[in-house]
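Hello forum,

I keep getting stuck at the same step: I have a sequence, I want structure tokens, and every attempt I make locally crashes halfway through. Rather than fight my setup again tonight, could one of you with a working pipeline run this one for me? It's a single chain of 268 residues.
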Amino acid sequence: MKRALPVALLAACTHSAEPPDAPPPKVVADTDVALLEDAPPASPRVDPPAAFRALQERIEARWGGDPNRRAALILDKPIYRPGETVWFTALDLDLPTLAPRTDRAQAHVVLVDPRGATAEELYPAQDAGRAASAFDLPPDAPGGRWLVRVVRGDEILVERPVMVQAYEAPRLKKELDFLRDAYGPGDEVTATVTVARATGEPLADAALEGRIRIDGAELQPVTVRTDDQGRALLRFTVPADTTVGDGTLTVRVPDGGLVEGSTGASPS
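Reply #2:
Ran it on my machine without issues. Output:
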């Protein structure tokens, strides 16, 4: 549906934007110049020479003797296991453009173990500011915080932490459950233990040893054997003179597996 524009609006659209008799623009007289405020001093944040000098000072304070160069280091992942390979890429960049530097033929990269000792050194070729290679962690590498460093002489240009975590797949599946949530002095504690191999096969006719600690004191160990389903029942008595009631039960199995749980013992 069409609607006609109001006549007044049409008139406004066709009217000249500047009437012929508009007054001329106002000109500030010479006598008014004294009333104008002085411009503020240039800010170093917007003054290009001052801002550039400040940037150079920050770069020099961070990167040392060559403020026009920056090193970067990239790792393939942050956490490794002993025996795995640590892949890295080292970058040699020009500041402030971050363009690759081409005046060096190789990089010097060091792998440092958790004790601070040098475990391995590499000198990968550097092409267009990029050097890539890898460290093979020893199979018996200790767990902890390792470091990958790009160095030049005695100067550390950049370093990245590498976490090494030793991992051993559990050989047994273990469960430990108490028949009650809490026990008091003089109570008999009953716990069920179920042990199976990683394949799911029950650990039948195996000797288990239960070690009990209550209020910091070791009680007499309890020895039981599993049935054909890998299950066993452990029983022991909470000492009558227990006051705090802080207790733990640790069950050891033949091939080094471990089950641990709290008895929840507390004074009545």
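The first strand starts at residue 69 and ends at 75. If your local run keeps crashing, start a new thread with the error log.
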